[in-house]
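Worked example 4.2. Below are the chains of a multi-component assembly; read each line carefully before continuing.
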Amino acid sequence: GAGVSQSPRYKVAKRGQDVALRCDPISGHVSLFWYQQALGQGPEFLTYFQNEAQLDKSGLPSDRFFAERPEGSVSTLKIQRTQQEDSAVYLCASSLAVGGTGSPLHFGNGTRLTVT
Amino acid sequence: QKEVEQDPGPLSVPEGAIVSLNCTYSNSAFQYFMWYRQYSRKGPELLMYTYSSGNKEDGRFTAQVDKSSKYISLFIRDSQPSDSATYLCAMGNQGGKLIFGQGTELSVKP
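Applying the procedure described above to all two chains together yields the following structure tokens:
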């Protein structure tokens, strides 16, 4: 009965390095979302997958951010040439329903990224 | 102006108090309204889920949605120290993504 699993839990990167954040959703969940949460703020939408298709990437802040879910299960969020403003907690969520809103989002505990 | 506005607090109450948390929003297309609770260094967990206007009660928690005023509330009765957390309102429509408020930090003192 595993929930959404994210790894690593903490990541420290030097400015300019590339990072890859992994999300294992709940088995069978069709929808997968990535959110960015800055300190003291609510989560901000980044991107949404329905199975392997990326249907909405309107929240990705720049072309340095890239997400994939090639087999419709595990997803990876990649950030190239990290900047200090990328420091945040990156949350992954999955949902059983298509579109996500027919059933609740189940969140992982996030990856805390610190760019020095 | 943000689509969803939420007072960040912090809010401090004594144990046993009734807590009222609120959010306003501007997008009349929102149909689904949720409250999440987030403990420190954890992901948000769903507390309440409401479709359209009305009230919903679950134990000590009551969620209210007033679409005409674009205003939602969460009430916590008989608050406990274990309720100390950040409470996030969230809302969405058929498009899929949820829009979150800033979160209200609640502290319940024994």
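Take a moment to check your reading of the output against the notes. Chain A touches chain B through 27 residues (CB under 8 Å). Chain A is about 0% helix and 45% strand.
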